[in-house]
Amino acid sequence: MPDLTPDEFRALGHLFVDAVADARAGIGERPVRDTVEPGTVRARFAREAAEEPSSLAGFPALVDAVTGDADTRWQHPGFHAFFPANASLTSLLGDLLSGAAGVQGMLWSTSPACTEVEQAVTDQLARALGLPETFTHDGGGGGSIQDSASSAALVALTAALHRAAPDPDTGWRARGVTGRERVYVSPDTHSSLAKAVRVAGLGAAALRTVPCSPGTRSMDPAALRAALRADVEQDCVPVLVCATVGTTSTGASDPVGAIVEVAAEHGAWVHVDAAWAGVAALCPEHRWVIDGVDRADSFCTDAHKWLLTAFDASLLWVRDAAALPSALSITPPYLRDAASDSGAVIDFRDWQIPLGRRFRALKLWAVLHGQGLSGLREHLRGHVALAGELAERIRGHDGLELACEPVLSLVCLWSTEGDAATRALLERVNADGRVLLSATELDGRPVVRVAFGSIGTTRRHLDELWEILIARS
Ligand SMILES: *Cc1c(COP(=O)(O)O)cnc(C)c1O
Question: Any idea where the domains of the chain sit in the sequence?
Answer without folding.
Answer: 6-30+34-71, 103-358, 372-471
